[in-house]
Design brief:
- By secondary structure, the protein is of the alpha/beta class.
- It is built from twelve helices and five strands.
- Strand 2 and strand 3 form a beta hairpin.
- The longest helix has 17 residues.
Length: 318
């Protein structure tokens, strides 16, 4: 039951008030006992009697008038709503198109539930997991800016004396983190390189396949996005053909298709790249192998029942 936010008495208080009056107490005395005005006590007493002495009669009523002689005609309200549905315009543009005051348009749209655009319909989750390690490998690249000394995010110094980080000599490029994650076990392999050229990608994939082979994982499929160094890379295509690996690509603008490695990059950025304060990018890069080993062998993974990825590799006992 709806109760006004500033109501002096709640439903229980109103019920106690009317039962006090029923018990023989005067309206004025009951009002004083419940710290309300006599008019308030009288109103709830009359509603109690008119409502057949039912608790539902003590609820708040709408303050909307029974008659609204100046209400906009129904056909004009429909015209406003129709303009809103067809154009998606806000109240001011709809007011200009219909010739009706902006304030009136806003009230009409609010009553009709059109003052805000409806939320976009979300597609249902499409989670999947291949049954065995190696059935599908996910591959992607992320980049991290190099730095010779900590920036204001760590030091808190935003003064930028002498030009600060905008000076040309402070721009030292990027490190590209190439990563491959196994779909079933989430076992990950990462290398840092200074670029993402075709030759770099091919050499990385070859070493990654050797890493997974050491763990008894033979790859059947490799999924990447539609990056030039992936889909136009002849050496990568020849490498995958030699190993009998099928190359899959994601749909354009659908990164969630390759979601496991995308999520891995988020975890790596949060826990390794930005989770600690490093003196330079070299110290950050040196910490990556230790973090990756912990991720693969000890860190609990929520999608694996809080077990590490190595627990899903078949030859975990050697």
């Amino acid at each position: 039951m709806y109760l006004h936010a500033n109501a002096k008495l709640g439903l229980a208080g109103r019920l106690a008030l009317v039962r006090t009056i029923e018990g023989g107490c005067s309206v004025r005395a009951a009002a004083a006992a419940f710290s309300v005005s006599p008019a308030t006590a009288h109103r709830w007493w009359r509603r109690w009697l008119d409502g057949g002495r039912q608790a539902a009669a003590l609820g708040d009523r709408s303050s909307r008038p029974h008659l609204s002689p100046r209400l906009l005609a129904a056909e004009l309200q429909e015209r406003i709503c129709d303009c809103r549905r067809k154009t998606g315009w806000g109240p001011r543009l709809v007011a200009g198109a219909t010739g009706i005051a902006h304030s009136t348009v806003w009230k009409v749209l609010k009553r009709a539930g059109l003052s805000r655009r409806s939320a976009a319909v979300k597609e249902p989750a499409n989670s999947y997991e291949w049954p065995c390690p190696g059935d599908l490998l996910h591959m992607d690249t992320s980049r991290y800016a190099r730095f010779r000394k900590p920036g204001h995010r760590v030091t808190g110094d935003r003064s930028h004396r002498g030009g600060g980080w905008m000076r040309q000599e402070t721009r030292v490029g990027y490190d590209f983190a190439h990563a491959i994650v196994d779909d079933h076990s989430r076992l990950a392999y990462v290398e840092l390189h200074s670029d993402e050229k075709a030759t770099t990608v091919t050499a990385f994939v070859e070493r990654a396949l050797a890493f997974f082979a050491e763990h008894g994982i033979v790859a059947s499929r490799l999924m990447t996005d539609n990056g030039f160094s992936y889909v136009k890379n002849r050496s990568l295509r020849e490498l995958l053909n030699r190993h009998g690996i099928r190359h899959l690509t994601t749909e354009p603008y659908r990164p969630r298709t390759n979601g496991k490695v995308e999520r891995f990059h988020q975890t790596m950025a949060r826990e390794w790249a930005y989770g600690l304060a490093y003196r330079s990018h070299r110290h950050r890069n040196a910490a990556l192998p230790h973090w990756l080993d912990n991720y693969n062998r000890r860190r609990p993974h929520s999608a694996l029942g809080d077990r590490p990825p190595i627990s899903r590799v078949h030859n975990v006992r050697g």
